[in-house]
């Protein structure tokens, strides 16, 4: 598998066919369970202001808005944002949605919480991840909460890794995925082939693999405290072989990280 995939692969990947596959593949009750987790662990009050970045097609944006929260979603995919806007209008929900990079968020400390769901954190290399965490810390008020959903933790993907092709189907869309691991860069390279009737789409996704300790350090270095690790929205403990990592944290009180003073 070629290792020359652009670091900004996600800017062109999330077109209608891949987006529609995941909209059909993920059951509605999954978003509700994840919204329960977010509310429970962040102790959200009614009408909390929440940032969802990147928000994709709005699964969590809409689920949280339906519970009375004031939600702003950001995503680089114009198709996904368009879908989320239509879904919000049909449901009578008032949400703010913008087409932008996941790091391009309001850094005004006005949000009670931020969420990064759906494994998007791994899109970014170390420098990009640090920039993203800094953006989230600047967006959230002191004491505000954070949830990060990550499926590419080293403890999740490396035990028993074999890279065998996977075949998935949802709502008439068939997907074949072949995955390789670049050990020198700690990167998963996943080649996707989507097919819906005569329509086909191929592209390679790149996910940076971090250990859970590395992720915790990125959050604390960026201005968050009280990092918690969970293996799913049911509060299962995270460990070797867990298929998923949900991190919770809280924005540190007082000024954020910056140059040391004498």
Automatic annotation (TrEMBL):
UniProt KW keywords: Methyltransferase, S-adenosyl-L-methionine, Transferase
SUPFAM superfamilies named among the record's database cross-references: S-adenosyl-L-methionine-dependent methyltransferases
One GO process term, biological-process aspect: methylation
Methyltransferase domain location: 50-144
Keyword flag Membrane: no
GO molecular function, one term: methyltransferase activity
Entry protein name: Class I SAM-dependent methyltransferase
């Amino acid at each position: 598998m070629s290792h020359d995939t652009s670091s900004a692969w996600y800017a062109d990947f999330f077109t209608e066919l891949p987006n529609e596959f995941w909209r059909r593949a993920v059951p509605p009750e999954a978003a509700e369970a994840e919204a329960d987790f977010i509310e429970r662990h962040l102790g959200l009050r009614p009408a909390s202001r929440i940032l969802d970045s990147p928000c994709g097609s709005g699964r969590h944006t809409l689920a949280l808005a339906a519970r009375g929260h004031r939600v702003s979603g950001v995503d680089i995919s114009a198709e996904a944002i368009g879908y989320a806007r239509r879904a919000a209008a049909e449901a009578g929900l008032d949400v703010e949605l913008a087409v932008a990079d996941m790091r391009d968020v309001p850094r005004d400390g006005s949000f009670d919480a931020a969420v990064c769901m759906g494994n998007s954190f791994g899109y970014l290399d170390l420098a990009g991840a640090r920039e993203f965490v800094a953006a989230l810390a600047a967006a959230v008020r002191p004491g505000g909460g954070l949830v990060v959903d990550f499926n590419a933790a080293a403890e999740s993907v490396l035990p028993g890794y074999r890279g065998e092709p996977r075949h998935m189907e949802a709502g008439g869309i068939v997907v074949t995925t072949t995955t390789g691991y670049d050990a020198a860069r700690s990167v998963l390279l996943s080649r996707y082939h989507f097919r819906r009737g005569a329509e086909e789409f191929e592209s390679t996704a790149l996910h940076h693999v971090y250990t859970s300790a590395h992720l915790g350090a990125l959050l604390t270095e960026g201005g968050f405290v009280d990092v918690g690790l969970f293996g799913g929205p049911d509060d299962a403990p995270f460990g070797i072989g867990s298929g998923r990592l949900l991190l919770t944290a809280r924005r540190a009180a007082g000024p954020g990280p910056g140059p040391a003073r004498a």
